[in-house]
Amino acid sequence: MAEATEPLVRASAERGVAILTLDSPHNRNALSARLRTELAERLAEAVADDDVRAVLLTGTGPAFCAGADLKEVAAERAGRPVDPAAPGMAELFAAIMDAPKPVVAKLNGPARAGGIGLVAAADIAVAPASATFAFTEVRIGVVPAIISVPVAARMHDRQLARYFLTGETFDAAAAAGAGLVTVTVADPDVDAVTDGILDGIRQAAPDALAGTKALLRAADRRDLASAFAEMAEVSRTYFAGDDAAEGRAAFFEKRPPRWAL
């Protein structure tokens, strides 16, 4: 397990691109309070840096991001709150979506639940053909509430309904066809394709990039803050329910939940 002194999000820079790497492989880069805090801080630093043209979000280990840290959720439900100052999922996704600089997600493996929220919040997402996706919320007794805000802005309605309601696993080709990722490429080509996208961004004027991203965001007429606030309340309600408690127990005990047929 990673030591508490080791960062869970590593930051580096390359030719005007801030590279933020999720580095918590012991729990498949789950969105723990500390990881969310570090990611939000590194993102804010990148946005404030005049030398940064774009942000690249990627990960280490066997997965891009497994979603919420269920051990922390269980601890909170048991009255052992984690860092109350840590940004919530809604704040994190909104920060990515509202960043004035392009955010490119380069997946290094599977994404699940809240991890798919990071993919959808990014402006551009490159996935290896081997990557898989699943909205597992319904299978642990909760709903994909908060992530529905960025995900619904990306995915086509029919596929969104299917994968939200079934929790089934789908591959990278299906994710691209549904609009969730920008492009799916052979695993060995992920770096080259991502580098090509970043080189394109490097050729753009910084102010024009910010203005174009604002233009793209304006196409969504919903009030982002209100949407996230509403979905955060829905999420809290379901995570506090009996089904969610059973879903977590089944997950940790590696057994089917009581409702499974």
From TrEMBL:
Pfam families given in the database record: ECH_1
Family: Belongs to the enoyl-CoA hydratase/isomerase family.
Protein name stated in the entry: Enoyl-CoA hydratase-related protein
Source organism of this protein record: Marinactinospora rubrisoli
InterPro entries named among the record's database cross-references: ClpP/crotonase-like_dom_sf, Enoyl-CoA_hydra/iso, Enoyl-CoA_Hydratase/Isomerase
Superkingdom of the source species: Bacteria
